[in-house]
Design goal:
Layout lengths: L7 H22 L2 H31 L6 H9 L6 H8 L5 H25 L13 H20 L8 H16 L13 H23 L15 H40 L4 H32 L3
Length: 308
């Protein structure tokens, strides 16, 4: 999957787009000083990439007609696609890229959670919100939204007990999806190994919740509404439940694979104007797919926990 970002020049274009977007957000949400700092950081990154590309091309030119380490170095710097997750995967002993990407996502979320917990613990009065946009403020907004989101979708009494599980699923998928918008990265969710693993976890979780809330009576939901329909309804219900994790995994994989491929294609073909639309579309797809996966998983728990 080397179509993530075709070349260093492609990373430059993508970095320029992200710099414009980040600077605009900083200007409207934070301050002009933060926007200027973001723009300067982006310009320095683009300049460093340009210098790297120039050096690489110079090495290729000097190594033309020769062989050896110099030629290999020049070829490695200039024309090859860039995929940082694959590079990290090879550095760790050729681990699967999905595992490496999942570890990165988990590390980011763990650091965010620990930092938010530390910010909350160090607050003078935890009951009073911070002024402005802070890490604690962002974490509290996310937690409050997830609490209401799970309660509204599940419609179950005591839905708050499901927030840690489904909140973790949603944030993990969302963060993994957004990896595809970073130049030189690919989303771990465009690998079926990861999407089917997430779907299997949700499958086991809603079966467990069904037996926990209804006991052995949960098996009655597989027999149909009336007893004489059992020979017909039982195979249908079993097939329906077995198909749920498959559909969850395939839907997430297919949408993220297609979104990432389209984004990589048009970022490589165009320059600074049109890719902005595809980055916006890609961001929407990332959010929607995380929501769809989580909503369907919560719905399965609701159906398994409700009395029939």
């Amino acid at each position: 999957m080397n179509w993530t970002v075709p070349t260093i020049a492609g990373i430059q274009r993508a970095t320029a787009i992200l710099t414009l977007i980040c600077s605009a957000l900083m200007l409207f949400l934070v301050s002009a000083h933060a926007a200027i700092s973001s723009a300067i950081g982006g310009v320095l990154m683009i300049a460093n990439l340009y210098l790297l590309m120039v050096v690489g091309k110079a090495i290729v030119g000097l190594a033309a007609g020769s062989s050896g380490a110099v030629a290999k170095l020049g070829a490695m710097i200039a024309p090859l696609p860039v995929n940082f997750i694959e590079m990290l995967s090879h550095a760790l002993g050729k681990l699967p890229t999905a595992i490496v990407g999942a570890w990165l996502v988990m590390g980011i979320l763990l650091l965010f959670g620990l930092a938010a917990r530390s910010a909350l613990a160090s607050a003078a009065d935890p009951t009073l919100p911070d002024e402005g946009i802070t890490l604690r403020h962002i974490a509290e907004v996310i937690a409050e939204w997830l609490d209401g989101f799970v309660a509204q979708v599940s419609e179950l009494h005591g839905a708050r007990r499901f927030v840690p599980f489904f909140g973790s699923i949603f944030l993990f998928i969302l963060t993994a999806n957004f990896f595809g918008l970073i130049p030189g990265m690919e989303p771990p969710t465009n690998d079926t190994d990861l999407t089917f693993a997430l779907a299997s976890i949700c499958f086991v979780f809603y079966l467990y919740q069904g037996f926990k809330s209804q006991g052995v009576s949960y098996l009655k939901s597989f027999l149909g509404p009336v007893l004489f329909l059992m020979p017909l309804m039982m195979p249908i219900e079993i097939a329906d439940n077995l198909f749920r994790p498959f559909s969850l995994g395939v839907r997430l994989f297919a949408n993220m694979f297609a979104d990432h491929q389209v984004l990589g294609l048009f970022t490589g073909l165009t320059y600074l104007v049109f890719p902005i639309a595809f980055y916006a579309l890609g961001a929407i797809v990332c959010i929607v797919q995380a929501l769809v996966f989580t909503i369907l998983s919560i719905s399965y728990v609701r159906m398994a926990s409700a009395s029939h």
